[in-house]
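Researcher: Please generate the 3D structure of the following complex. Treat every line as part of one assembly.
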Amino acid sequence: MDDWRDGIFEAVKAAGVTQVAYVPDAGHSRLIERSIEDNDLRAVSLTTEEEGVALLAGAWLGGAKGVLLLQSSGVGNCVNMLSLAKTCAFPLVMLVTMRGEWGEFNSWQKPMGVTTQAHLELCGATCYRCDRPEDVRETVESAFRFAYFTNSIAAVLLGQRLIGAKVFEEPASC
Amino acid sequence: MLNRREAVRRLLADRGNMLVVAGLGQSCFDCFAAGDDPRNFYLWGAMGGAVPAGLGIALAQPERRVLVVTGDGDALMSAGAFATVGAEAPENLAICILDNERYGETGGQVTHTARGADLAAMAAAGGVGRSWTVRTKAQFADAVGALRQGAGPMVAVVKVAPENEPGALPPQDGPHLKRRFRSAALGVEDK
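Model: Done. Output below.
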């Protein structure tokens, strides 16, 4: 089966994206690497995720499409800036790699991880979840169509079950 | 001390093809008072959004001059964006920060720039090498030329008097502002 990570990249390319804004996450590393290598894409590393919401509003004002790559913890950083996308009906696609759920070991990831979808929905985003590799490409393609045809915010939540929960070596007593 | 409204009027006079993002509060009102233009995008909220929004336009339209006009409060909230601008280094992006050392819309409380923070130094430290502070009319005359035509990215921090100017409220309807900007800047008619 094709790798879902390449499927995301192909969906991003097919959507006509030229600006890929990101705060890195292991689950997005393939997409980030391929975006940096692609001469038709501008991969923009952000200091905080909310910059990406404003950056991609600007991209659309300038006639360009974009995508925002972030981890679930970064959704919390975006809350007020999403008012820009919602109030002005900017198309926005967010690809969110999940932490703080399936198989999580780090309790500090939980507060945002278990409430990511609720936060996004309160901010006006429509969420699509992916936990199976065969659904990923089609879901990302659908999110682009939804966001750019209806001038709205679409978030794809890439589940920890899909990405693989992060594992740390722990002492035998744990 | 420079008057913010007069400064913005001079900055936007005979603006040519320039695309403008105005940060929330007084900066929006100053840009509107200088003469409304569909190629102005006014932020009525989204504090911290003016600089990254300007960057997005600049990357999408590398042949056009993009000018961000915003205040010290907005710029402080997105200080990390100086590093993003520095890293991307778009030559067509100019940022003018009207620094009155106050939060003008909330009662005039002092910002950190009244207490030692130096936005030009912060921008330079973020990688925007062409960053400087403007305090006099003569310096501002030079800054206008640089902001409109010089090689960016650049950040000019213009120290302005703290008094708020009379109300001059631009349109608030977000989809309208977006559509008219894209229509005027790109010739795109959105449904």
